[in-house]
Structures are given as structure tokens and as C-alpha cells.
Design goal:
- It contains 15 helices and 25 strands.
- With 567 residues, it is an alpha/beta fold.
- The longest helix is centred in the N-terminal third of the chain and has 16 residues.
- Bound molecules: adenosine-5'-triphosphate and magnesium ion.
- Adenosine-5'-triphosphate binds next to helix 3 and strand 8.
Length: 567
């Protein structure tokens, strides 16, 4: 007996609080021991990293306990919704590695049942048509400490309510002319109980139901019942819905019984530093051309992160690091970036690219000659193998890796100094050529032929190792370097400023004419992850083609940004 309890307790320790609640319900045999969750996006924008947190919860918990998770589009507001978003949402969930099989549902599928329920509630005296404007209704709401005022239409006869509601749906009245409200309690301490609106008139074609309906249910009247119609047992959402929960339960009780009743559980939203997470604001950035689209690599959207080169695993690892709690917090984007680096370190191919090239001529290497040297593809992955890279008399190194008058402890190249060219030879600087303004145009070196790996001299140690590419073989490419989208840590908190004023004007810089080794060009397929050694992680952008290579810098090798901010 004690042993079993102990095992149970140990198991519980590894569970977050939502998982614990679900485990308890399953153990108690609620809903016939079924677990069915849902992820309910509104198709009014692309998914962002906050949605990924909800997806990992909704799909993840179903996987963990052998349940199922539905994909349900919460499409109750035709004005803002579009099929473009439906398609993008599906692609993003699949990319994250989750699948809803045949359980793709739409709240609009339930419009007939919801309408029938509304009619029933009218007949039972639990709902009425209010002719007041939204301003009048708002002015009667009261405050949490002051009771509201009853609408003058509250005691309409059932017949009149039925007639008006049906005519609302028939399209007889203009938008805003009337609403259907639940008749609950205008003095409830929960503001959501003060005769909440159930239906409003919207005369805009719906992306699925066309012009069939002229009344559309409010979120609160649709969500719980949709859960019920679908067989959802656990409706997991974010903390802002805590005050809505009593209303969720109120409506669901109209349908449920002791054998099956969906339950709402709330966890904290994901908020990230240096970005915004509101779909309305993200839409504004897209519509006003302040970013290149929903999948702009600077956006906190899943599609933006995919384009930028983030892996699904890194997003999941980040989400499991921050966990699920019952209080709101702001998470550092550095934590996400750390997870991205960790995963890319495991999976990316090591290659050489020179971002700011300067030519080095190796004067004692035969003219016209070249040879291949072997490069390890990924020291983190023993099965990744090697690739060969050409070496020749003229190479490119980074301009920053040479200094004519270096300070102490500069271990890169300088006059009379020696460095190793990674995977190849040790070279020694013998001179430079300058233009008339004194800028260095070329560097001259000699190489030590004994120091190639595999030869006896390869053991000789020098302090610096540089990346390089053979000038004759290198291919030109462009890189797009990204920085934080916003220059303030928490744009949403700066309520007195327009969020667009806080955009970081240096969030994108484009560098053309970088030099990459041929292997990069040969493998620049969509989704390929490279580590440009000593520089960062890169992936081909969607705009990249064989004749015009364009790479996104997913992330620099180190978090240099945090350091510069602290100065
Ligand atoms: P809206 O303001 O348009 O309602 P929303 O971000 O809530 O935007 P939905 O499409 O309604 O978007 O969200 C679908 C699901 O994702 C909901 O269950 C919601 O709670 C969850 N979700 C949305 N934003 C976050 C976030 N930042 N962190 C965690 N979950 C989120
Ligand atoms: Mg929402």
C-alpha cells in the first residue's frame, strides 16, 4: 500500500500543476476516464511563440496521458478571420511536431446547436433581446463594488424575445441595433455574470458559412458549449480566462450531466522580452509594412522563427524550461535563444564563410595549384562525417582577424605573427599592400608545408586559429543579420507610447559579398542548418536561389548582445 502511494507521489513530482489536475480527474474516473483536450486558435492571425506554449500543453498532455487533442478554429468573428490564417495555423502546428488526425473542428460547425440552445434559454426565461446601444449597456454595467442597473428590456415577454431574436438572425436589423443577453444577475460580484451578451448582429460573410448567419455567438457563449459538443474533457487556456470560468461553467451546465462535463483549467501566458505578443499589434506591423510579413524572421511568430532557422525542438525545449504556473511573468528572450543555440549546436553542419573578407596571398604556395583538405561536419555528431574544402594560394580571411599594430594578447594575424588556418596550414604574415589612402588591400603570408593535419608538423602549436575560404573557389553570398525587434524590454508595459515608436531601427542588416566555401552552396537547401564557424548559425532564406545565395543568421554563436547592453 505505502509502496504504491510512494510511486504515485514520485510520479506526481514530475508533473506540472495542470498535469496533476488531469491525472486526478483520470484517477477519479471522471468523464468515463477519457482525456480530450483542444487547441482553439482564432483564425485572425498567424501563430506566435505564445501559442506554441499552449500547443505544447494541449497536445503534449494528451500524448502524455494517452488522450486526444482536437484542433478547433474559434471562428466566431467573420470580420477578422480568413482561410489564409487557417492554413498557416495548420502548417505551424505540424511543423512543431503535433497532429490532430481527423479531429479538425470549427466553432462555426456548432452555430446551429448554439442557436438552438439560445432559443431554449429564451424559452426558459434565461435570455432576452436588448435594444440598447453598446454604450448604454456599458454604462449600466456598474463596477466590481457597485451593482449594475437592469436593462429596460430585461423583462420582455418570451414571445417577443423569440420573435426579435429570429428576426435578428433573418437580417432585419442593422449591426449594433440589438443583442441577445443572458438574464443572470446585474449585481453579481463577478462582472461576467451581469447579463453577458450571448449574440451580436454581424453582417459580414463568414469564411465558412457565408451569409447563412446574421447573428454570431460571443466567445463566452461559444467556447464551453463547443467543448461540450466535441467531447472535450479539459479545456486548458490562459489566466485571463479565470474570471470567465464561472460563466463557462454556467453555460456548460445547461448541457452537461454527471457522466460528462468539460472543465476549464488556466495557466500563465508566455510573454517575451523585446517583442510584442498581441495578434492585433503583429497584424499592424504586417499591414503597415514595418516587417516583411508574418514570417519575417524578426517576428515572434512560429513561421518567422521557422524561416529564421529555429528548430521545433529548440522551441519545445524552451517551453519546457519555463514551465507552466499560475502567475504571470515576463520571460527573457535570451532563454529562448539559449535553447536555439543548444539545439543548433547538435544538428548544424560546420562550414566556413567569411563575412568581411580581405585577401591573403600565400607567396610560397605554387601558383595555379590547389588541394583539398578535410573538414569535420559536426564534432557533436560522430555519424556526421567530413567534407572536403579547397585550399589554394589566395584565400580570404575576416578583415577583423588582421591587425597591423595589435595590442597585447591579440592572437590572430599580425606582421611576423603566425596563425593556423583551420583544417589546413600554419601561415606567417610577411607584409601587406596598401592603397593610396593607407587601407590594407592584401596581406602576404608564407605557409609551413609540414603543418597540414596528418603531417609531422601538424602538432606545432600557435595561439590563434582562423576560418578562411579559398578565393578562387569561394562563392559570393548575402547574409541577413537580425537583432531584437524592439529596443525596449517590455513594449507592452509602456502604455503611454505607441508601440511602433519602440521598434529597433537596426533590427535588420544586410551584408552582401560574403565569401562561402563551395560545400555551402552545394547544400544550401531550404531548412539546412549551418554553423559558419566562429560567426554563428545560418540557414538559407526563402529568397535564396542557386544563383543568389541568401542566408539568415539564426543566431550569433554567443550572446554578445546582453554584454553590450550592460556597458
Ligand atoms: P486574441 O487576442 O485574438 O484572442 P489570442 O492570442 O488569445 O488572441 P487565440 O487564437 O484566441 O489568440 O489563442 C489560441 C490559444 O492560444 C488560446 O487558448 C490562448 O489562451 C493561447 N494563447 C494565446 N496567447 C498565448 C500566450 N502568449 N501564451 C500562452 N498561450 C497563449
Ligand atoms: Mg483569444
Amino acid at each position: 500500500m505505502t509502496e504504491i502511494n510512494e510511486v504515485e507521489n514520485i510520479e506526481k513530482k514530475g508533473l506540472n500543476f495542470v498535469e496533476q489536475l488531469v491525472a486526478e480527474d483520470l484517477q477519479a474516473g471522471k468523464n468515463g476516464g477519457r482525456l480530450n483536450t483542444r487547441f482553439p486558435p482564432e483564425p485572425n492571425g498567424y501563430l506566435h511563440i505564445g501559442h506554441a506554449k499552449a500547443i505544447c500543453m494541449d497536445f503534449g498532455i494528451a500524448e502524455k496521458f494517452g488522450g486526444t487533442c482536437n484542433l478547433r478554429f474559434d471562428d466566431t468573428n467573420p470580420v477578422k478571420e480568413d482561410v489564409e490564417y487557417v492554413d498557416a495555423i495548420k502548417e505551424d502546428i505540424h511543423w512543431l511536431g503535433f497532429d490532430w488526425e481527423d479531429r479538425e473542428y470549427y466553432a462555426s460547425d456548432y452555430f446551429p446547436q448554439l442557436y438552438d440552445l439560445a432559443i431554449r434559454l429564451i424559452k426558459e426565461g434565461k435570455a432576452y433581446v436588448d435594444d440598447q446601444t453598446s454604450e448604454e449597456i456599458a454604462s449600466q454595467k456598474g463596477s466590481p463594488t457597485i451593482p449594475g442597473t437592469n436593462s429596460p428590456y430585461r423583462n420582455r415577454s418570451i414571445e417577443e424575445n423569440l420573435d426579435l431574436f429570429q428576426r435578428m438572425n433573418a437580417g432585419e436589423f442593422e449591426e449594433g441595433a440589438r443583442v441577445l443577453r443572458a438574464k443572470i444577475d446585474m449585481s453579481s460580484s463577478n462582472m461576467h455574470f451581469r447579463d453577458p451578451i450571448m449574440y451580436r448582429i454581424i453582417k459580414h460573410p463568414h469564411h465558412r458559412t457565408g451569409n447563412k448567419w446574421n447573428v454570431y455567438p460571443m466567445y463566452d457563449f461559444a467556447h464551453g458549449q463547443s467543448d461540450y459538443f466535441e467531447g472535450v474533457t479539459h479545456s486548458i487556456c490562459t489566466l485571463e480566462f479565470v474570471p470567465h470560468r464561472p460563466l463557462y461553467e454556467y453555460y456548460v451546465k445547461e448541457l452537461a450531466d454527471e457522466t460528462y462535463c468539460p472543465r476549464q483549467i488556466e495557466f500563465n501566458r508566455l510573454n517575451l522580452t523585446y517583442t510584442v505578443m498581441s495578434k492585433r499589434k503583429l497584424l499592424q506591423l504586417v499591414q503597415e509594412g514595418l516587417v516583411a510579413g508574418w514570417d519575417d524572421p524578426r517576428m515572434p511568430t512560429i513561421s518567422g522563427m521557422r524561416r529564421r532557422g529555429y528548430t521545433p525542438q529548440s522551441i519545445k525545449n524552451f517551453i519546457s524550461t519555463i514551465g507552466y504556473t499560475k502567475y504571470e511573468a515576463l520571460n527573457s528572450i535570451s532563454l529562448l535563444e539559449h535553447a536555439v543555440r543548444e539545439d543548433l549546436n547538435k544538428v548544424s553542419t560546420r562550414v566556413m564563410a567569411v563575412i568581411n573578407p580581405i585577401k591573403v596571398v600565400i607567396t610560397n604556395y605554387p601558383e595555379g595549384a590547389s588541394e583539398m583538405v578535410e573538414m569535420e561536419n559536426n564534432p557533436e555528431d560522430p555519424n556526421s562525417g567530413n567534407h572536403s574544402m579547397p585550399f589554394s594560394r589566395e584565400i580570404y580571411i575576416e578583415r577583423d582577424d588582421f591587425m597591423e599594430n595589435p595590442p597585447k594578447k591579440f592572437f590572430r594575424l599580425s606582421p611576423d605573427g603566425e596563425v593556423r588556418l583551420k583544417g589546413a596550414y600554419i601561415i606567417k604574415c610577411t607584409g601587406v599592400k596598401k592603397d593610396t589612402d593607407g587601407n590594407i588591400e592584401e596581406i602576404y603570408c608564407t605557409y609551413d608545408p609540414d603543418t597540414r593535419s596528418g603531417l609531422p608538423g601538424s602538432a606545432r602549436k600557435v595561439k590563434g586559429t582562423l576560418h578562411w575560404v579559398s578565393a578562387q573557389h569561394a562563392i559570393d553570398a548575402t547574409v541577413r543579420l537580425y537583432d531584437r525587434l524592439f529596443e525596449v524590454e517590455n513594449p507592452a508595459a509602456e502604455t503611454d507610447r505607441d508601440f511602433r515608436e519602440m521598434l529597433n531601427s537596426n533590427s535588420l542588416s544586410v551584408v552582401e559579398g560574403i565569401k562561402v566555401e563551395p560545400f555551402i552552396a552545394e547544400n544550401a537547401t531550404q531548412g539546412h542548418k549551418f554553423q559558419f564557424q566562429r560567426i554563428g548559425y545560418f540557414t538559407p532564406d526563402y529568397d535564396s536561389s542557386a544563383g543568389n545565395l541568401i542566408f539568415n543568421r539564426t543566431i550569433a554563436l554567443k550572446d554578445s548582445w546582453e554584454k553590450t547592453q550592460k556597458k
